[in-house]
Amino acid sequence: MMKQRRVLAVFLALATPGMAAAQAAQTAILYKNPQCECCDAYAKVLERSGIPVTVKATSTLTALKREHGVPGPLQGCHTLLIDGYVVEGHVPVTQVKRLLTERPAIKGISLPGMPAGSPGMDGVKAEPFTIYEIGEGEPKIFARE
Fold first, then answer.
1. Alpha-carbon span 53 to 79, nearest angstrom
2. From CA 65, how far away is CA 137, in angstroms rounded?
3. pLDDT, tens digit, for every residue of 4-62?
4. CA dihedral (133, 139, 140, 141) positive or negative
5. Angle between the 38-48 and 93-102 helix axes, to the nearest 10 degrees?
6. Three-state SS for 68?
7. Which of 11, 17, 77, 130 has its CA 20 to 30 A from that of 35?
8. What does residue 94 show for φ and ψ, rounded to 5 degrees?
């Protein structure tokens, strides 16, 4: 009986971080314009990489971006809210996962515009993507990919 309790305690200790990560991933909501299809494609990219996403069409996307502190120059096609962060535009999944793992003290990250070849976008990637931090002051580079 005592051994079973120890095994259960070890199992719960090991399972808890994974459960917390899965629970955090369940909070991903992608807001998009009702007519946009590339946003749906981006949501599918996230889903295939293990990030469950709820897609919500809205006609108030600009107000949502402003509410979450996304400055005009950093705005992208859609806005993803995940685990307390804002992810703006077609940010590569590796950088979304890095954000969620490192948990920096910023509002979020952005890949402005709709660059060809980015996740969910057609076309060929012409140059490395520059992903910016969304925070206070001038935008800083979060990553180049």
1. 12
2. 17
3. 444 334 334 444 444 444 444 457 999 999 999 999 999 999 999 999 999 999 999 99
4. positive
5. 60
6. coil
7. 130
8. -60, -35
Among 94, 96, 90, smallest CA distance to 36 is for 90
CB 9 within 8 A of CB 56: no
Q: Is the pLDDT of residue 92 over 60?
A: yes
pLDDT digits (tens, 9 = 90+) for 29-43: 999 999 999 999 999
pLDDT of residue 18: 43
∠ Cα 79 35 96 (to 5°): 25
Domain region containing 39? 2-144
Copy the structure tokens of residue 112: 């402005």
Q: Report the alpha-carbon distance of residue 53 to residue 84 in Å, rounded.
A: 14
- Number of domains present in the structure of the chain: 1
- Where b means 16+ CB within 10 Å and e means fewer, 57-81 reads eeeebeebbeebebbeebbbbbbbb
What are 99-120's pLDDT values in tens digits?
999 999 999 999 999 999 999 9
Q: Give dist(CA 61, CA 82) in Å, integer.
A: 16
Do residues 106 and 133 make contact, with C-beta atoms less than 8 angstroms apart?
A: yes
